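Handout, section B. The chain below has 283 residues.
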Amino acid sequence: MSSSEYPELHRGGSLLLAWQLRGKRVVLVGGGAVAAGRLVNVLEADAVVTLISPREGLSPEVEHRIFVEKFVDTYHDRPFAGASDLEGADMVLTAIDDNALSEDICRMARERRIPVNIADVPPQCDFYFGSQIRRGPLQVMVSTGGQGPKIANIIRRRIEDALPPAVAQAIERIGALRRELRKRAPGVGGELGQRRMRWMIKVCEDWNLEELAQLDDEAALRVLEGWEKGTVPSYEEVMGGRASVKTLNRVVDSLASLSSVAGPPLLGAIVGVAATWAFLTRR
């Protein structure tokens, strides 16, 4: 086979991972605005956090996380004390203005083979945080490899604006359906695992995100009836009297186009259809 049949390699990138930090110990040195962002990142990953910073250097957000929400497991109201502060750490982060101390912390962490990130100093980072989107279980990261954090932020906002409002709920519903399917068809790998994967892919392809977001427990059971038959029921078949979101959207779009020609009288019809859509999607 010619090399053109395979994906082209683009060297020099990062290995993007969904790093599982749940229950792992993260040492964060610093308490300012940058540290606040790092703190949110690791707390949302359910890490066990030790934060080291004199109290007078804490930002209002970091103070809130420590003393009001009490999300920080261990807080040391003092400067970094040395290698002993890294004992038992699974990850080390620094967000301080002292470059010499940051370099020392980086060296100590690497000597102990602990992954380290020194804010705003890419050569001293084993990983980058990137610009992130969080909508429920959905996480999206945009990284420029430390070269253009602001560009990553601009791109992230454009992606975020393009996401449909129902995306988080749709993912939660499809996750619940997948778990229920695993109960009915347990096992890993093999022909059953492949069949289960193909069936779930078809559900995601046949139902749009707005429709998946309406997949309550009762409707999910009706969808799962298709698994036994080797089919995927349509939205209309499962929801019965509920009009399809796709159909309602097409009607609204059509009325909107007509109103530009026929004028204000059709605006009331558009409002009526929109109200009907809102009512049906909440049922």
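Note. The two ends are 54 Å apart (CA to CA). Compare this with the example in section A.
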